[in-house]
Automatic annotation (TrEMBL):
Organism field: Streptomyces spirodelae
The protein's name in its UniProt record: LLM class flavin-dependent oxidoreductase
Pfam families the UniProt entry points to: Bac_luciferase
Matching Gene3D superfamilies: Luciferase-like domain (3.20.20.30)
Domain Luciferase-like: 1-297
Keywords: Monooxygenase, Oxidoreductase
């Protein structure tokens, strides 16, 4: 089981002070948060990809390359790589390069994003979102697994005798998660390739995501990658903690009420009742996170969103201390004890290299 954090990189005013950080401050804060994640014993740091204000992470590989030089254990990931508007050739090359720099501590999450205008900015049509995701990823797979590629499709110029460089480290491409909040086609795509499926369940009720995850598990087994219990599932989550629950609710409420995504909508109480958001004590975070398994089955990766809505860096670092020292160690122990036999481990570069070498014997 892997535990980590993901960021969307929003630049949001602090509603308690009215101050908005600069882009420079926000980028530096994200780097500090990633380094803190490793310090407190987390496994994964993931960044989104956005090309519009109020977000700053437009170049994930630049950020993750910097972090590769300043961390030793942390898996460096994206929480969205825009498979629809990025050229798959550039994705293949950028992430293979990052993989070498980080000695294999790299994976990525494919997604279509949630910003409609990004499509025409990069010369694409949002109405072709699903076909773009399918075609571009099929090409990306070939670029990573075939040394010389001849290819022709609908959405980019043909390739003749093309070799993507550098080649993936040890001949094993970065592991891919397919992220979705609404599209069964993406769950099907993840299952077809035997990749991971990340259900970013932070905004919608669990019954919606149960359907998506069950579809993915069923199709994963259908395509012969293993049993449905061996499918590779990741989940999102959001937490805000203080020693006393009432202190957590009092402190977080103005941030929730004014957040750019869910502010001025359902109440904090309604949102915590219907989604993974947990605002309370460390024990309440533990208790609620353990219920995810009851809804979705055993899974391999849990990522928490903790630095959004204008929360100051000092507060986020305090949250990470509690997450790493008090919450995650208990979750590791409890989830391992409850885990059914035969459930797949979370993939790493080392285990995937070993699997490939074992299959070749």
């Amino acid at each position: 089981m892997q535990f980590g954090i993901f960021t969307v990189g929003d630049v949001t005013p602090d509603p308690t002070t009215g101050r908005t950080p600069t882009e420079h401050e926000r980028i530096k804060a994200m780097l500090a948060i990633a380094r803190k994640a490793e310090e407190v014993g987390l496994d994964v740091f993931a960044t989104g990809e956005h090309h519009n204000p109020p977000f700053v992470p437009s170049s994930p590989t630049t950020m993750l390359g910097y972090l590769a030089a300043r961390t030793e254990r942390l898996i460096l990931s994206t929480s969205t790589t825009l498979i629809t508007t990025n050229d798959p050739v550039k994705i293949a090359e950028d992430f293979a390069m990052l993989q070498h720099i980080a000695d294999g501590r790299v994976d990525l999450m494919m997604g279509r994003g949630n910003t409609g205008p990004v499509y025409p900015w990069f010369g694409q049509d949002i109405r072709q979102g699903i076909p773009l995701a399918i075609e571009n990823y099929a090409l990306l797979r070939r670029l990573w697994t075939e040394d010389v590629v001849d290819w022709e499709g609908r959405f980019r110029t043909p390739l003749q005798g093309f070799t993507s460089t550098p080649r993936p480290l040890d001949g094993v491409p970065p592991f891919v998660w397919h992220g979705s909040i609404r599209s069964p086609e993406i769950a099907e795509q993840a299952a077809y390739y035997g990749d991971g499926f990340f259900a970013n369940n932070i905004f919608w009720p669990k019954d919606h995501f149960k359907r998506l995850i069950n579809l993915y598990r069923d199709r994963f087994e259908h395509y012969g990658h293993g049993t449905r219990e061996q499918a590779l599932v990741g989940l999102g989550g959001q937490v805000f903690m203080r020693r006393r629950s009432q202190d957590a609710v009092r402190e977080f409420r103005p941030y929730f009420d004014n957040a750019p995504v869910y502010g001025h909508g359902p109440s904090l109480e309604e949102f915590t009742d219907q989604t993974p958001l947990t605002v309370g004590s460390p024990q309440e975070v533990i208790d609620k996170t353990l219920t995810f398994r009851e809804s979705f089955g055993d899974y391999q990766r849990q990522l928490f969103l903790m630095d959004h809505a204008g929360l100051p860096l000092k507060t986020v670092l305090e949250q990470l201390d509690m997450l790493g020292e008090e919450v995650v160690p208990v979750l590791r122990q409890e989830m391992a004890a409850r885990r059914a036999a035969g459930v797949a481990d979370a993939p790493t570069h080392a285990t995937r290299v070993a699997d490939r070498e074992g299959a070749a014997v």
